[in-house]
Design goal:
- The complex is a heterodimer.
- Chain A is α+β, with helices and mostly antiparallel strands.
- Chain A is built from 9 helices and 23 strands.
- By secondary structure, chain B is α+β, with helices and mostly antiparallel strands.
- Chain B has 11 helices and 20 strands.
- The longest helix of chain B is centred in the N-terminal third of the chain and has 18 residues.
- Chain B is globular and about 75 Å long.
- The chains are: A alpha+beta, B alpha+beta.
- At the A-B interface, strand 2, strand 3, helix 2, helix 3 and strand 5 of A face strand 2, strand 3, helix 2, helix 4 and strand 4 of B.
Chain lengths: ~475, ~450
């Protein structure tokens, strides 16, 4: 993307006021979003993101400057702007020079094929229309279908003053469908999605009809359903996107972005028991062609598999470069960002609870009255307190060890560290699901996952009578 | 920031290409510079400076739109983006019958209206404050919040931010519209700790002129953030049941942002608004009056023109509880034969949509204290969390993680946490029994008073 000579000049300019570390991140990204609404193409939006970010460290203080100007002069100007922002307390000027570059060695972990601009647009249109017509044929209650295909190819270069030089390409493709239903004055909507770290030829393997069916079936199930009960009760959370509970309730609190600020309930917990023996949790960037995977992170470090919690004991935080410097923990290849517009931060990749020994049936059989969360929606957390919330998109009441009826409007809330301690059973069937995670360094692809889990008590925000 | 002359010349060359292609053309350009600073333990935690340009084409070919954006304003890159947008318009024309084409034909906006008075959203104050002073302000936000009380353990989320931005719309029907803006904003979110308990709360600010940001202003923000966090200490979960609820004005303003899309003509056309069949019908209590107002004094969302270059104006959407108007852009005004409210929104990277300048839910004449004393037992909601996960737009139902206070006979009894307030937007709007005279702070483009709702579901311990 840029010659080593130009990059060296940029890094040296960034170091000229005495910074201890300088980094250049350059990005060239193609992205496309095609949608159908009212059974007709509605949006055809293509864009090209191209720019760079220069980051310097003065001790534990970080300066980040971005620019669209990728000329040598433009980049050097950005580097000098970063250098000039030197904090007053950071001492005198001891000018350093960047080291010569050594490319980060890695095996390409992922198979890529047809890039989005090479894939036949007629085929994309047919995929969209397949979702549209499948949804409409599935139920006469369907009033609207909004399918979308999202594709992204991101080429990056990360180089730093310690001699790191890493270039990589990441391809993301995703199919999404949202349906709206109406019947006897009641309205309901639901969505389904599937995505991968891969190229557009992956669409050939997607069952678009099934994707549309699952959205319609869920909306049909809920449209006349009663409201979820309200109050504290045992909850069984099914596999796949159920893993969002670990992502929000615990994962964000394990990022050094929160730990270094002493804004996490997991500070000072390293090596201690924070969950039942049945809980082992992993953050793994190396799984081939999986939504949250990488080859190298956005700081140029080869990605890896990190065991966060092993048999209930906290084993690792999620650590980026600045987080490592601030906390003393080793980097985990987890420095990530949405684009050059953001400085990298410690972020999750593919994060999941490992498979255990229990069955879903046994977990439900145990419960006199509770909730089965079959499909989870999104959620959020305040890492400082660990307070989290999730929407449940498909829930069932459990009564006397059996599923009684589907219910709508369930929200789960609680405090992450408490909920983690209340996971009493972990199922055998691990499933992963793609998602988008928003935090300090923007919105990035992350995978969540788990087998089914049984939590002894969560507050369910349904409807009080 | 934008070299308007060069841009006009490049646009003119592409207009010639578009004429040959039989296409119409709209170009939206955004340029900006921004600075974000934050402080942790007296050290600079973040110093992010960015400079960006984005140009987004909207091409209309035979009544069908295609889009493309690029971050380069070079002539060759703009031409390439135009060609891609043209291809996208061709793509979007697929599968359209001649019948549907007649209904859905899109035309670019054109106008001979005179420009209203400039809103003075831009000033040169940012350049008059030194970088050292800006960094000092970031440190001051953290330090003064931290020192507000010994129980404030940290201020993990704080920011001082400023930006200058420029927004241009040019189209092949002769529209030329330009708006510049300046803003200075920030926040402090702090943790209050007592024994094993920790609670977080924050306060934000927004001004247009950097010189307005006096030390006392930062002090007020710091004190307010700390006071809110401290007020949460000792909170307990309420008993599950139905309660009269007063929604704090800041929370009501946030809710308004969540439901605002229901009043867009695009949502009506796409059958995603829960109010699509309710024009001229009561959808709220008679105490509810909602307007889109581009001229609020010091309003965050003030604008002179919308994203198509149409001059902005006030639209009364709900009057005494009755739905009176949808917000429209020129496309949906034509499609649904509705008045054009000049409510187009679009960033250079997005498609044309519809959105407000400032949503204003009008205040009443009652004090918030009177609202809290209206019933013997009232839950006062100070925070809703999880707007995206707790709101189901398709049905209009919600269940939000909440924090608040229990009030009995007009007196605060205790802080509350760990509960979910649930209901439907219809139930909430129809259930408004009181509207305070106090309005939320101008920190976003939604403004609201405190609302008393007669009864909502509360799920607690």
């Amino acid at each position: 993307m840029l010659s080593q000579g130009i990059v060296k000049k940029v890094l040296d300019a960034a170091l000229e006021r005495g910074a201890q570390f300088a980094e250049l991140f350059v990005e060239d990204t193609y992205q496309s979003e095609l949608t159908v609404v009212d059974s007709k193409p509605a949006k055809a939006l293509v864009g090209r993101l191209k720019g760079a970010g220069v980051r310097v460290f003065y001790g534990n203080e970080q300066v980040y400057v971005t620019t669209n100007d990728l000329s040598e002069a433009g980049l050097v100007k950005a580097a000098r702007t970063a250098a000039a922002a030197k904090p007053q307390a950071s001492g005198g000027v001891t000018r350093k020079e960047s080291k010569s570059f050594t490319p980060t060695a890695f095996d390409e972990l992922h198979d890529y094929g047809t890039r989005p601009w090479e894939y036949d647009r007629d085929k994309k249109f047919r995929h969209l229309m397949t979702m549209d017509s499948a949804a409409r044929e599935r139920s006469s209650m369907v009033t609207q279908v909004a399918p979308a295909l999202v594709e992204k190819t991101q080429r990056i270069l990360v180089a730093n003053s310690q001699g790191v030089w890493a270039e990589d390409e990441r391809n993301y493709v995703r199919a999404v469908v949202t349906v709206s239903l109406e019947d006897q004055g009641e309205r309901e909507s639901a969505g389904s999605r599937i995505g991968t770290l891969g190229t557009s030829d992956w669409f050939e393997s997607v069952d678009f009809e099934d994707l549309a069916f699952s959205a319609v079936d869920r909306a049909k199930l809920l449209i006349h359903a009663d409201y979820a009960p309200a109050g504290e009760m045992p909850v069984v959370i099914d596999n796949g996107f159920g893993g969002v509970i670990f992502h929000e309730a615990c994962g964000h609190g394990l990022e050094t972005t929160a730990v270094a600020k002493n804004a996490s309930v997991f500070c000072e917990k390293m090596g201690t028991k924070i969950a039942d023996d049945c809980v082992t949790a992993i953050d793994d960037g190396t799984i081939a062609n999986t939504w949250g995977s990488l080859n190298v992170d956005d700081e140029g470090m080869k990605t890896k598999k990190t065991v966060l919690i092993e048999n209930g004991v906290l084993k690792s935080y999620i650590v980026d470069g600045m987080g490592s410097q601030q906390t003393g923990f080793e980097r985990t290849g987890s420095g990530r960002r949405q684009s050059y517009k953001y400085a990298p931060a410690s972020r999750m990749r593919n994060t999941f609870i490992a498979a255990g020994n229990d069955t879903l049936e046994d977990m439900i059989k145990d419960i006199d009255f509770g909730l089965y969360a079959k499909e989870m929606g999104g959620g959020s957390v305040s890492p400082g307190t660990g307070d989290y919330n999730f929407g449940v998109t498909e829930a069932w009441v459990i009564k006397d060890g059996k599923l009684l009826k589907p219910v709508k409007g369930a929200t789960l809330i609680g405090r992450g560290i408490e909920t983690l301690g209340r996971i009493k059973k972990v199922g055998r069937e691990l499933r992963l699901q793609d998602g988008m995670c928003g935090s300090v360094s923007g919105s990035i692809p992350t995978t969540v996952g788990q087998p089914a889990i049984q939590v002894s008590k969560i507050l369910v925000g349904g409807r009080a009578t | 920031m934008i070299d308007a002359q060069t841009l006009e010349s490049n646009f003119s060359a592409i207009e010639d290409l578009a004429k040959k292609d039989g296409a119409e053309l709209e170009l939206l350009v955004e340029a900006g510079e921004s600075l974000q600073l934050s402080s942790i333990h007296g050290k600079l935690d973040k110093f992010d400076s960015s400079h960006s340009n984005v140009a987004g084409f909207r091409v209309v070919l035979n009544g069908v739109e295609g889009y493309c954006w690029t971050e380069s304003l070079e002539a060759s890159d703009l031409q390439a983006a135009y060609k891609e947008a043209l291809e996208n318009a061709r793509f979007a024309a697929r599968g359209r019958s001649s019948e549907s084409s007649k209904i859905d034909t899109v035309k670019l906006y054109s106008s001979t209206h005179k420009a209203p008075e400039d809103q003075k959203l831009f000033n040169d104050s940012l350049g008059k404050v030194s970088i050292d002073e800006k960094i000092a302000r970031a440190h001051r936000i953290e330090e003064r919040t931290q020192k507000a009380d010994e129980r404030i353990s940290s201020v993990p989320y704080n920011q001082y931010a400023e930006s200058e931005s420029e927004f241009l719309v040019l189209n092949s029907k002769g529209i030329r519209a330009r708006q510049r803006r300046t803003s200075v904003s920030g926040y402090a979110y702090c943790l209050a700790k007592q024994a094993d308990e920790s609670r977080m709360a924050g306060e934000s600010f927004f001004v247009r002129n950097s010189s307005d940001l006096a030390d006392s202003y930062i002090d007020d923000v710091a004190q307010a953030a700390a006071a809110k966090a401290l007020a949460k200490l000792g909170a307990v979960s309420p008993e599950t049941g139905r309660y009269p609820v007063v929604i704090n004005c800041r929370v009501a303003a946030q809710l308004l942002g969540v439901i605002g899309d229901y009043f867009s003509a695009k949502s009506v056309a796409q059958k995603t608004s829960i109010f699509s069949e309710d024009m001229d019908k009561p959808i709220a209590s008679p105490l509810v009056n909602l307007r889109d107002d581009p001229n609020v004094e010091n309003g965050v969302g003030n604008r002179t023109f919308d994203a198509e270059g149409a001059y902005s104006k006030r639209t009364d959407v709900i009057e005494k509880g009755v739905l009176k108007s949808w917000l429209t852009n020129s496309v949906y005004a034509a499609k649904l034969k509705l008045p054009h409210t000049a409510s187009a929104v679009r960033s250079a990277k997005s498609e044309l949509g519809i959105g407000p300048s400032n949503w204003v839910l009008e205040p009443g004449r009652t004090s918030v204290e009177e609202l809290l004393a209206r019933y013997p037992r009232v839950i006062y909601i100070t925070d809703f969390t999880g707007y995206h996960s707790g709101f189901r737009a398709g049905s209009g139902e919600f269940g939000f993680q909440s924090e608040g206070e229990l009030w009995e006979n007009g007196r605060r009894v205790k802080a509350l946490c760990n509960f979910v307030v649930a209901g439907s937007i219809r139930e909430l709007l129809m259930g408004v029994e009181g509207v305070s005279s106090r309005m939320s702070k101008k920190i976003s483009n939604t403004l609201a008073p405190d609302l008393l709702i007669g009864s909502l579901s509360v799920a607690g311990a």
